[in-house]
Amino acid sequence: MIVSRALGAPGEEQPTQVSSQHNAGARGRRPAVFRMAEWDANLDHIIPSSVLPPLWAKLLVGFVSLVCFARSYDGDFVFDDSEAIVNNKDLRAETPLGDLWHHDFWGNRLSSNTSHKSYRPLTVLTFRMNYYLSGGFHPVSFHVVNILLHSGVSVLLVDVFSVLFGGLQYTSKGRRLNLAPRSSLLAALLFAVHPVHTECVAAVVGCADLLAALFFLLSFLGYCKALKETNKEGTHSTFWVLLSILLGAVAMLCKEQGITVLGLNAVFDILVIGKLNVLEMVRKVLRKDKSLENTGVLRTEGLLFRMSLLALGGTGVLYVRWKIMGTGPPAFTEVDNPASFASSMLVRAVNYNYYYSLNAWLLLCPWWLCFDWSMGCIPLIKSAGDWRAVALAALWFCLIGLIRQALCSEDSHKRRILTLGLGFLIIPFLPASNLFFRVGFVVAERVLYLPSAGYCVLLTFGFGVLSKHTKKKKLIAAFVLGILFINTLRCVIRSGAWRSEEQLFRSALSVCPLNAKVHYNVGKNLADKGNQTAAIRYYREAVRLNPKYVHAMNNLGNILKERNELQEAEELLSLAVQIQPDFAAAWMNLGIVQNSLKRFQAAEQSYRTAIKHRRKYPDCYYNLGRLYADLNRHVDALNAWRNATVLKPEHSLAWNNMIILLDNTGNLAQAEAVGREALALIPNDHSLMFSLANVLGKSQKYKESEALFLKAIKAQPNTASYHGNLAVLYHRWGHLDLAKKHYEISLRLDPMASGTKENYGLLRRKLEQMQKKNV
């Protein structure tokens, strides 16, 4: 016989043992333990008893979660991964670890005006560890970590769901019982296979959501541990309460919504552990019942102490985070979140609620998934006649019904399940709701990772209700298994879409055809692969959908510039800087186009404006140097290129141009010094070897020049100019046979090289003359 103690408020029936007999109390009243067991038994036709032992249940959930997302293990770094991982200097060893605590998720200083204030140092630290242990930017190791984290979260949810469905029941030895093994297993399986999780698992940046969820759940379970009854009712473990708060802080340092676990813990304590019946309290207030003063939950000193700890802990953590981040809010634009920029409060409220309904729909029917939902993907609701307003009514009809049952039901078991289900659904979503501050997105699948746990609780509860009130249990079982299978299949397919940017971006075209960013990203991917004609088509569509899309204008202008369509390129880039005057990249590209059009004064002004808006802009200094070189302003050109190399020591083009300009102006000693300085910084750059070798050859340092030419040729054996200039060196040096050999190689690689032809002709005549003399 297993002795069990249940946490509850005075007046609630407290079972002392698990028995097969019903309590002999009033008609229809049975101990909570039996009601839970009876409720869980409603799912016996769906979940076989063979998988109910805790170990087998967790192994099954872990295995299923791995199957769903295993396909993403060898994917590339896609979308936001490039900025957060590949281009993030905080992952590299040369960045001090202390900088992680002052930088945002993308490696920018939190004090910067461009920072999004996404403060997740512990997530960045895991990226850095992964980078170090795997020996570089190898996507496989990052993806494997994400898959394992999702599997761990899914397994941990078996324990969490057992509390939500079965309550806190303990054996005489203090071991917590799982009184709802079928419900907790089914809910965990529904969570493990939900396709809306694909973004978090398949995108490396989703590690932030996974880590936050892990510590969120550990914090909740720690709080449950704190409420484990000892000798008398109302006692708790202060250590576990404090540990729960600490785990909540750790979750927040992984991602912002992690701190919401403290709110969930408070709801759990007041409404579930304290068994506060809101309906009963309202009735007493309306009747002015004096017994309200004796309500147990209001007089429990332990509860007040725990609430004080949660409030003080949460406030302290948020204050420290606020001090580190600074007081300035993140800077978002209208295209990121159009509703938040609407002038009418009513329009904002209506569209926010429509966004909530879309999130609910993604949980209910996760078939239409997209990597980005901004930039016109979801047009604003601006009139009462918009049919989409029906979605708002449906959402609040369901929510109000659930909340009413959660707070006012006479059945404490139903109250607990619905309260915690809604708590998990709503509370972690609050930071993304636009209620407290503006967020930088319209809909984001990643923010539904934790809320989906609440959805799985409510769905499992619904299946239990259906099973209880229908005789067609096999049909319900088939429906549930069908959902699990279809969602698993959808996860596998969607994971494949996240393996490369091309597949990811193209998959969004059918979901959000009005999203300018989708067309922009497809165009950018095509341009990176050299398909400029197709890229132009998508860039033009992006600009058509969003006439103020300056990044699309900039990229389209660049391609047109390369295709020598300079007039249209100038028009696009001029419009881009007119729309966004501080767009430094567009100013620089406009300068390049103006330089090509021989409008040198306007080009110089554009370069100067770009540098004004971005002071550390080595590429712009490089292009400014080219302009000065075209104008024969050699000193200014050298100064501009020197600035480029100071800002970016590995800027090979700037080094090369300095060497060539000094060489062409006869400053061989200075050219040699610059060349040696450059090679010391970039020792494997074959173009620098080639330029310095030319200088050394003119200075009659033939042996050293030869060595550099040969190293350059080893790196790039099919470059005609390398062989041609080495042949010139041998020609001067008197090694005519070697000169002849490399002239011939150079001409095979580039038969149209006139200079090489001329030099080869001179060499052949010289060899013929020598041959005649010998004869």
TrEMBL record:
Ranges where the record places region Disordered: 1-27
Domain (DUF1736): residue spans on this chain: 328-400
TPR repeat windows: 516-549, 550-583, 618-651
GO biological process: endoplasmic reticulum unfolded protein response; outer hair cell apoptotic process; positive regulation of endoplasmic reticulum calcium ion concentration; sensory perception of sound
Pfam families tied to this protein: TMTC_DUF1736, TPR_16, TPR_8
Pathway this chain belongs to: Protein modification; protein glycosylation
Ranges of Polar residues composition bias in the record: 14-23
GO terms of molecular function: ATPase binding; dolichyl-phosphate-mannose-protein mannosyltransferase activity
Membrane topology: Multi-pass membrane protein
EC number: 2.4.1.109
InterPro entries documented for this protein: O-mannosyl-transferase_TMTC, TMTC_DUF1736, TPR-like_helical_dom_sf, TPR_rpt
Stretches that traverse the bilayer: 147-167, 179-196, 202-224, 236-253, 259-282, 354-375, 387-405, 417-437, 449-469, 475-493
Protein localization: Endoplasmic reticulum; Membrane
Top enzyme category: transferase
Keyword annotations of the record: Endoplasmic reticulum, Glycoprotein, Membrane, Repeat, TPR repeat, Transferase, Transmembrane, Transmembrane helix
Gene Ontology, cellular component aspect: endoplasmic reticulum; membrane
Family per record: Belongs to the TMTC family.
Protein role: Transfers mannosyl residues to the hydroxyl group of serine or threonine residues. The 4 members of the TMTC family are O-mannosyl-transferases dedicated primarily to the cadherin superfamily, each member seems to have a distinct role in decorating the cadherin domains with O-linked mannose glycans at specific regions. Also acts as O-mannosyl-transferase on other proteins such as PDIA3.
The protein, known as: Protein O-mannosyl-transferase TMTC4
Organism: Balaenoptera musculus (Blue whale)
Name of the gene encoding the protein in the UniProt record: TMTC4
